[in-house]
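Lecture 7 notes: from sequence to structure.

We start with a single chain of 208 residues. Read the sequence below before looking at the structure.
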Amino acid sequence: MERPAVNALPTRQAQREATRARLLQTAVQILIAHGVAGTTTLAVQQSAGVSRGALLHHFPTHAALLSATVAELVRMNEENAQREAARLAGHPDPLVRAIRTLASVTVQPSFAAELELWACARTDAPLREALRAAERAARPEHHRVVDALFAPLAHHPGAATVAALSVEFLRGLALSSLLKSDPARREQLIDDWIQSAAMLLDKPGRMT
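Now the structure, written as tokens:
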């Protein structure tokens, strides 16, 4: 009689990791679909099909649960950037490719969910502190994506300034679009920024 394989059954650690992953994926899905208000611990627990104890073991507070979604949202935003960069790969202007790629990312639901988290954290100290820690951990990934997009422009003195300003501009534009949707106006503003950024590229920037 053959003996069962030693690793045939999942270990307790593997089960815990699978449960945490299921909870986190469920939380991200609910956050994107229903916002922060709808992403309650009870909703996540029931949708994931786990016990209350299992949820609290991995995410003892609501803030811990929400902040844990940041890494997944950053990953989703990175995937969106990679897809858009591939779509625009044939465009001859690297500045247009970089800014248009970032602009595409900022209209995705995962990006809006991340913005909403920060907006809610303004008056929620535990959430704000948890998000700050999560964002610090995710920052290298964010910088890596932006650096890769603007790498073809690195020989310009103002490239770093243009990259930083582009991120801030598009984040602000995403917030404005939540209040008033005007696609034509948005496109015009992005075109205007691309023209302005082109003029800044050959000017030495000062990053403080």
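Residues 25 and 72 are 8 Å apart (CA to CA). Keep this in mind for problem set 3.
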